[in-house]
Structure formats: structure tokens, C-alpha cells
Amino acid sequence: MRLFFILTLIPADVAERLLHINLSLARQARVVLDINKSERHIRGGTATKEKYLHQHA
User: Fold this and answer.
1) What is the pTM of this model?
2) Residue 25 contacts by C-beta under 8 Å, 6 or more apart in sequence?
3) Phi, psi torsion values for 48, nearest 5 degrees
4) Using N-to-C axis directions, what is the helix angle for 23-55 and 9-21, rounded to 10°?
């Protein structure tokens, strides 16, 4: 049996599990996850821009 994970749920799952295992590590992970969440739309826009620049060049 193969397990499939929805990518948006993985960070939430990691953060939730870490709260019960290691509070200090959970706080550090939350900082990293929040930074990623705030920057990912920029990375996506940059990737799309690069894609179209290379297609029409």
C-alpha cells in the first residue's frame, strides 16, 4: 500500500508532532516553516517568469 501526502499538510503535521516530542525544536521548525510560507509565492512567480522568458527567447 502506497501512502500519499498532500504537500500543504506535511508542515502542519511536522509542527504538530514536534510539539509533543521536542518543544524547542518545534519552535525552531515553526520559524523555518513560517519563513518558507511567506516566501514561496515569490519563488513561484520567479520560476514562472523564467519559464516564459525561456519559451519566448
Assistant:
1) 0.63
2) 18
3) -65, -40
4) 160
